[in-house]
Structure formats: C-alpha cells, structure tokens
C-alpha cells in the first residue's frame, strides 16, 4: 500500500477543523487510495479539545487514516509534513485595531513559517485559511525563504465557490456547467469576484446578466456572504470553509479540469499589475502539482479599478507588517 502523506492542521480544535479533518480522513482531499497521517497543532489550552476531536476521528474507523499526533509545538507539528493547513489564527477582539490584529497573527504565522522551513518535507504545500489569510500567508512565506514562494497560498476558494453558486442560481444553470469565474485580490470585503470571462456551457455569461445585478447584487453578495452566514447561523462559515480547503488542495495536487480555472491567493509574479510578492488572488490552473496564473486575460476598466482597490489594501497590509518588523 502507499506511504501515508502527512497533513498538518492548525487550529485543530476549532470549528473549521471539526469539518475539515473528517473530510481529509475520508479521502476527499488526496483521493480514495492515499493514506494520511494527521498532525494536529493547537495552543496548550485547546490541546484537550483537539484530543476530543481525535477520539471522534478514531471512532470513524477511516480505512485511510494511518495515525493522529496532537501537539502544541510547531516544530513537532510540521516535522516532515507534506501538506500544511494553517487554520488557527487570532480573531479580531473587541477594540482591536488592524495593526494589533496583524501583530498578533504575525506572532503565530512567523514562527509557523520558520518551523515549516526547518522541518517540513521538500514537497511541502501550505494553505493559509486563518484570517487575515493573504497577509498571514505572506508572513509565513517570508519566514521560510528557502521554501519556494509558490508553495505558500491563501484561501479564496470559498469566495470562488460562493460566486459559482450565486451565478448558478441567477442564470439557472448547474454549477457543473459553469467555468472561468475569478476572485481577484484580498480575501476581504474588497475582493473582486469577476464574471468577465465566465462561461456557461462554454458560452460567455457576461451578456446574459445585467450590469446592475453584477454590481449591486453579485459582487457585494459574494463579498458579504461571510457576514450573512454569521447572522443566520450565529457562527462563522465552517463546513463550507472546510469544503473549500479540500477543493483547493485537491486541485493543487490532482490538477484543475481542462478549460476551467479556479481562484487561489499566491505570491504575485507581477502578473496583472499586482506588485511582486503580494499574496493576491488570481485565476489559476494547476498541473503537475503547481499553480500557474492564467496569462493574458483582457482586463476592462471596471475590473482594473476593482483589482487595483483590493491590491492596494494588500499593499497596505504588507507595509503594516513590514513596519511591525514581522517580515
Ligand atoms: P475557531 O475559533 O473555531 O478555531 C480556531 C482555532 O485555532 C482555535 O481552536 C484556537 O485555539 C486555534 N489557534 C489559535 N492560535 C493557534 C496557534 N498559534 N496554533 C494553533 N492553533 C491555534 O475558528 P474557525 O471558525 O475554525 O476559523 C479559523 C480561521 O479561519 C479564522 O481565522 C477565520 O477567520 C478563518 N476563515 C477563513 C476563511 C477563508 O475563506 N479564508 C473562511 C472561514 C473563516 O472565516
């Protein structure tokens, strides 16, 4: 049988991990033939709760689950890891300014990046889910300069999936018949969900939807969906976030379908005027285990303005963490 892949999940006692770990153990992320070994990282106060989640994973009797280790030590958690899902983060507390939030998270993602560089497997792939995800990924990446920068990504797949679902409902076309939706920029309220190049059954959707629907319902609806979930559920998105993380890693490892792309935040190579190094969301394809930014798309004036606004926010976040000495 195949050698198990080691998957590290941080924030393992949290609500996203509670959905995510079971999907990984079931083989939804790496396929039905690939055994996995789980490494759960938590802060000391939450190790007991993570042990509870691990007990339930045991009780799932998953044939692909080769073992579970639980630790509060990043060096142990990332030792030899192949896939690192950085879910645990410091949430914004009452009265916390953006600078405080970035600083608190720098204290988490800096050391975790360093631990990944020190101990992870050569093929390590990192997905940052914990917010502010793009800049947390930037901090981790800059603290792991010997790891190829493109191995550090942040999650905009939930936004991408929300955009697909909303478009599907609006034009009454199954998600399976839609392609080439894009999320640009930051995983924040400034993100730009873009339908300019989207296809339904291979034909452009842009002529089938109203400009006013795009600008007044679609874009804000996708960008504010997280807040709507909190209002309805009394808790933030968890199972949908876990499902998006599964989709992200599955496509990274197994490839994207022909004639389609997905959205991933990764260190910019300067494409589309996004300053090099900023972890920004792009349309990407995957093959051979590597993301590639879709080249040469035409960007109209409306899109340009939206992309630039979100990228400006990312540049401000980068300047702030530079000033704090976090990168
Ligand atoms: P929870 O508060 O339920 O769980 C977070 C867990 O992380 C806690 O158990 C906490 O003890 C742990 N943690 C904190 N610091 C840690 C550290 N240094 N090492 C290891 N574990 C640590 O949050 P949950 O709902 O699971 O959300 C986790 C993160 O995902 C949050 O930052 C949230 O904002 C973010 N999200 C990102 C999304 C995205 O699309 N990129 C969407 C969903 C979600 O909002």
Automatic annotation (TrEMBL):
Keywords: NAD, Oxidoreductase, Tricarboxylic acid cycle
Catalytic activity: (S)-malate + NAD(+) = oxaloacetate + NADH + H(+)
Residues engaged in binding substrate: 92, 98, 131, 162
Every Lactate/malate dehydrogenase N-terminal domain range: 6-145
EC numbers on record: 1.1.1.37
CDD domains to which the protein is assigned, alphabetical: MDH_chloroplast-like
Record bears the keyword Oxidoreductase: yes
A GO molecular function held by the record: L-malate dehydrogenase (NAD+) activity
Active-site positions on this chain: 187 (proton acceptor)
Binding annotation for NAD(+): 11-17, 105, 112, 129-131
SUPFAM superfamilies in the record: LDH C-terminal domain-like, NAD(P)-binding Rossmann-fold domains
Residue ranges of domain Lactate/malate dehydrogenase C-terminal in the record: 156-320
Function: Catalyzes the reversible oxidation of malate to oxaloacetate.
Family named by the database record: Belongs to the LDH/MDH superfamily. MDH type 2 family.
Protein name per the record: Malate dehydrogenase
This protein's encoding gene: mdh
């Amino acid at each position: 049988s195949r050698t198990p892949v080691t998957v590290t999940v941080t924030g393992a006692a949290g609500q996203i991990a509670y959905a995510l770990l079971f999907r990984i153990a079931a083989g939804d992320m790496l396929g039905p033939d690939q055994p996995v070994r789980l490494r759960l990282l938590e802060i000391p106060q939450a190790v007991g709760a993570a042990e509870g989640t691990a007990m339930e994973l045991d009780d799932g009797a998953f044939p692909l689950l080769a073992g579970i280790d639980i630790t509060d030590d990043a060096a142990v958690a990332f030792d030899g890891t192949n896939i690192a899902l950085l879910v645990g983060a410091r949430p914004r507390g009452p009265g916390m300014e953006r600078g405080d939030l970035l600083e608190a998270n720098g204290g988490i993602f800096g050391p975790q990046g360093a631990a990944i560089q020190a101990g992870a497997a050569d093929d390590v792939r990192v997905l940052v889910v914990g917010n502010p995800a793009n800049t947390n990924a930037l901090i981790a990446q800059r603290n792991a300069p010997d790891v190829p920068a493109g191995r550090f990504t942040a999650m905009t797949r939930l936004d991408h999936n929300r955009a697909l679902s909303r478009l599907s409902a609006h034009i009454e076309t199954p998600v399976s018949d839609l392609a080439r939706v894009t999320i640009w920029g930051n995983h924040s309220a400034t993100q730009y969900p873009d339908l300019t190049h989207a296809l339904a059954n291979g034909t452009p959707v842009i002529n089938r939807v109203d400009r006013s629907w795009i600008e007044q319902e679609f874009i804000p609806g996708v960008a504010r969906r997280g807040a709507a979930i909190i209002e309805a559920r009394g808790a933030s998105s968890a199972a949908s976030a876990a499902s998006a993380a599964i989709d992200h890693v599955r496509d990274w490892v197994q490839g994207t379908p022909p004639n389609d792309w997905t959205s991933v935040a990764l260190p910019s190579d300067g494409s589309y005027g996004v300053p090099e190094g900023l972890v920004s969301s792009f349309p990407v394809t995957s093959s051979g285990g590597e993301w590639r930014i879709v080249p040469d798309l035409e960007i109209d004036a409306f899109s340009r303005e939206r992309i630039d606004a979100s990228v400006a926010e990312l540049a401000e976040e980068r300047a702030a963490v530079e000033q704090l000495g976090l990168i």
